[in-house]
Write a structure and sequence with these properties.
Elements (H helix, E strand, L loop, with lengths): L1 E5 L6 H13 L4 E4 L16 H11 L4 E7 L6 H14 L4 E5 L18 H20 L2 E5 L4 E6 L12 E4 L3 H10 L2 E4 L11 H22 L7 E5 L13 H14 L3 E5 L11 H15 L1
Parallel strand pairs: 1-2, 1-10, 2-3, 3-4, 4-7, 7-8, 8-9, 9-10
Antiparallel strand pairs: 5-6
Length: about 300
């Protein structure tokens, strides 16, 4: 099992760069950031762009993997995103993972002045977005006319450092999204079952995650892949456990062990942010980073 962190882009780089360097020093497998224009309770505070932040992080670090968790079609287009990702993969010397999802109905959904998309349209756009992005990152020139997205001889030369392209970590729980993960993903991402967050139990959450993995397996079988080919990534903080796994090393080891048994290969924990939903003791967090995986055996 791998342990990674997500660092929200809320600090000016003069301060924020220290966190990304510290994440590498602590031995995290990857450090991700959210790709939003603004997000939840952080909307009225500082919030910087994901791709410039990752570019800066790539030049400030040497070994740790970097990525989005997750990018969505809400305010991005595959042609411009592909060019930026190819460049970022080059700058980082092949350390980028693209976390990608369908997006939601939050602030990003209307920031460009559009009406929020229905769940069906989000799913339709997501399928078209991922398929075109895959082509753009693997072919030298792409022309495509879709319902929502188009490309006209779009070129991405010389392509990604990682071949055939940088990996996609597809966030999905519904049948259409899981099929996309099975077809295009090198990893699958989940935050659990949101219906359980307020009143569910950790045991119910584990059962729901097991059901999601079972559905992923069926989607992979339909695509002709083995489900073991995909890394399975759990972004924590959104299950009924909330922040309890970060209360102690033992609590985290117990949490990680239960989810490793389900088949998860990577757990992502939020870098502590005081006075927020992601508040945690920094010293305990760093002990988890350096000690927990060894205790899993």
């Amino acid at each position: 099992m791998r342990l990674s962190t997500v660092i929200l882009p809320i600090h000016r780089w003069s301060e924020g760069q220290k966190t990304w360097r510290r994440a590498e020093d602590l031995g995290f497998h990857a450090a991700y950031t959210y790709d939003h224009l603004s997000w939840r309770t952080f909307r009225d505070g500082p919030w910087f762009g994901a791709l410039p932040t990752l570019t800066a992080a790539a030049t400030a670090t040497e070994r740790i993997r970097l990525g989005t968790l997750v990018t969505s079609p809400n305010f991005r287009h595959p042609v411009t995103l592909a060019k930026e990702l190819m460049s970022l993969d080059d700058i980082s010397d092949g350390r980028i993972t693209l976390g990608i999802g369908a997006g939601g109905s939050g602030f990003d959904a209307t920031a460009l002045g559009q009406e929020p998309w229905s769940p069906k349209e989000r799913a339709d756009r997501f399928g078209e977005f991922v398929a075109l992005l895959d082509r753009l990152l693997t072919e030298e020139a792409v022309t495509e006319r879709g319902t929502y997205y188009a490309a006209d001889e779009a070129r991405n030369i010389p392509g990604c450092v990682q071949r055939p392209r940088l990996p996609f970590a597809v966030a999905a729980t519904g049948p259409r999204g899981l099929k996309l993960a099975a077809r295009y993903g090198q990893a699958w991402v989940t935050t659990g079952d949101p219906k359980l967050f307020d009143e569910g139990t950790p045991e119910q959450s584990v059962a729901a995650l097991a059901a999601q993995i079972e559905k992923l397996g069926k989607a992979c079988a339909e695509t002709g892949r083995e489900v073991t080919e995909l890394d399975k990534v759990l972004l924590t903080g959104f299950t009924p456990d909330r922040s309890r796994p970060l209360e102690s090393v033992d609590a985290f080891v117990d949490f990680a062990g239960r989810h490793r048994e389900l088949g998860f290969t990577e757990i992502v924990i939020h870098w502590p942010i005081p006075d927020s939903d992601f508040a945690a003791d920094q010293a305990v967090f760093e002990r988890i980073a350096t000690e927990a995986l060894a205790q899993l055996g």
